[in-house]
Design a protein that fits this description.
alpha/beta, Rossmann fold, two-stranded antiparallel sheet, 7 helices
């Protein structure tokens, strides 16, 4: 039975407790043993962290200490523990921590139009996480990200969105929305959707998270 830690907190506007509950439901339906925590102190036990097959952080902004961060980095890098998450809970977490950004592969820097923007998500179809899924539209925040060029991008969204002030975007671009990467021996999955639980509940966003969790989980 694979084991997973979900740790949630930070800015309440992203409904971290409700998103954590959804992720717990998804993982338990796949046979995971899941522990849910509302503190970062759980990561201070390095032996416990590296024994996990998957880490799911849900922490918008906030700060993390070296004593909390380093066991995560070591578990992923050296022991193959996977890490997976969404939206601000993973890539708008711990903004001053460059090594966290190196781990996750990206950092939120803006969402022109704020919440309520209707935009398309275009999926690459040649990866196990996206195979058989169709492009879709979402009404939410559209994240503008700074991303690692080494990411394996599985989904994009076009910027700027018509009618939305994209003054910071001088040229149109396809912004990475879903990606995978490796950090040492471990696998990393990120999905920029997830401003709140409701955004993740429709079939395709939920399935992306389910498959992303499975893909990132440490294999035996």
């Amino acid at each position: 039975m694979p084991s997973a830690i979900i740790s949630w907190g930070g800015w309440d506007g992203h409904e971290p407790d409700k998103v954590a509950d959804l992720f717990r439901e998804i993982l338990e339906s796949e046979g995971y043993q899941v522990a849910v925590h509302d503190t970062l102190s759980v990561f201070e036990d390095a032996d416990h962290v590296r024994a996990q097959d998957l880490i799911v952080p849900i922490w918008t902004m906030s700060t993390i200490t070296a004593e909390q961060r380093d066991p995560i980095l070591a578990a992923v890098r050296d022991h193959g523990t996977g890490i997976a998450g969404c939206h601000g809970g993973m890539c708008d977490a711990f903004r001053v921590d460059c090594e966290w950004q190196f781990l996750t592969g990206g950092q939120f820097v803006g969402h022109p139009g704020n919440d309520g923007v209707r935009y398309p998500v275009h999926l690459r179809k040649d990866h196990p996480i996206t195979e058989g899924l169709e492009d879709f539209k979402v009404v939410s925040e559209q994240y503008y990200m700074h991303t690692d060029p080494g990411n394996d991008v599985l989904a994009t969204t076009p910027f700027p969105t018509p009618g939305i002030d994209g003054h910071h975007v001088q040229n149109s671009c396809q912004m990475p929305t879903v990606w995978t990467r490796h950090y040492g021996k471990g696998r990393v999955f990120y999905n920029a959707l997830g401003h709140n639980r409701a955004v993740l509940e429709p079939a395709t966003p939920r399935e992306l998270m389910r498959r992303g969790f499975l893909w990132a989980t440490r294999s035996a």
